[in-house]
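Hi, here's the filled form for the chain we discussed.

Project: internal
Contact: R.S.
Residues: 114
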Amino acid sequence: QVQLVESGGGLVQAGGSLRLSCAASGSIFRINVMGWYRQAPGKQRELVAQVRNGGSTNYADSVKGRFTISRDNAKNTVYLEMNSLKPEDTAVYYCCTRGIGTYWGQGTQVTVSS
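And the returned structure, exactly as it came back:
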């Protein structure tokens, strides 16, 4: 099993920044990919960004150039730096790991006011 603990959500004005963190514990060997998804009210959960064990990343088109995902393997932690936030970024953000099994965090609310 992998346990994920997220932090860093909150309320911010449009144009502002937030940094999300997700610390993994447990069976870390199971993890190949760490990433962030988000789900806005009435919408499906969508991939925001992910980073693989080798360091390669990919992003949703809607966040390219504004969000940066990074990973500290020594701390088993993945970060999402979110800049130039827009009201449409408002959602619950979920940390997710994939590999031998898929694991989800509890979610953290990000609200961007206009």
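Let me know if anything looks off before we file it.
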